[in-house]
Amino acid sequence: MKMKNFIKILNMKPLICLMLPMLLAFTSNNSGSNADSFVYRKITGGAFSYKEQLSYRVHYGFINAAVIDLSVGADAVSVNNRNTYYIKAEGKTISTFDWMFKVRDKFETYIDQDALAPQKFIKAVIEDSYKDTDVAIFKHPDKVLFSTKAKGQLKMSEYTQDVISAIYYARNLDFKNAKVGQEYLIDVYLDNEIYNLKFKYDGKETIKTDLGKVKCLRLVPKVVVDRVFKKEDDLTLWVSDDDNKIPIRVKAKIAVGSLKVDLVKYSNLKNSFSALSK
């Protein structure tokens, strides 16, 4: 494998390493609705709130390759005449890797406060000499979205998510009655495509982290077998087994070794971090 391709696998998608399993971790609602009589769902509970900050470190083996920061804005923002959470996700390679392959990825989403579905999604990525942007507006009553990548409107299922909103919606799921091996499906928008993705619940596990021991729920998404992944279950996600359901760790077996994403810092959690024991 050429060095350029090797570096791309390590650093090209640090955000996706975290997001992919989380964006799988919920079920979609495909029930039919008429736009004229459409009423947004209201999801009760709350795994997160304003001002929350989560920071992650991306490892390739023992090498620190990149960092990821997820943040929730301080106040509600109106989009499509709906109050939303403004959430930003940024991923970048650390300085020692920039000279080989520089990554500066930024994703923003505006999540409906009641429905926990995106009203607007913005993507801006810089990966070495490659640059790409996209802006998508979701019209849930009409089951369509409009994006700068599309030549027209794109049909979608009801409450289709983007790669960031999916994380925060998933954190509000109740896994108390989930059975090991139980599978879930979800539709997610990215780059003018709607992806039908699947994951399974794989039980509970307490893991050691830099923050301490964390009681977790273990989720295994189904990935595409290609030049990066050799098996469908080569990616695993651990989320905190408490009311926050924070993504704690992601591990991936890849063609050239292993990749790991770890939570290293957090602040302004809505609920007690009861899954953590130091």
Structural overview:
The longest helix has 11 residues, at 14-24. It is built from four helices and 17 strands. The chain has a 17-stranded mixed beta sheet that branches. It has one domain (3-265). It has helices spanning 3-11, 14-24, 95-98, 165-170; strands at 53-60, 63-72, 77-79, 82-93, 103-112, 118-127, 130-139, 144-147, 153-155, 161-162, 183-190, 193-209, 212-221, 235-240, 247-254, 257-267, 276-277. Strand 5 and strand 6 (118-127) form a beta hairpin. The relative contact order is 0.19. It is mainly beta and 278 residues long. Mean pLDDT is 84; it is low at 1-12 and 20-33.
How is this structure best summarized?
By secondary structure, the protein is mainly beta. Helices cover 11% and strands 48% of the residues.
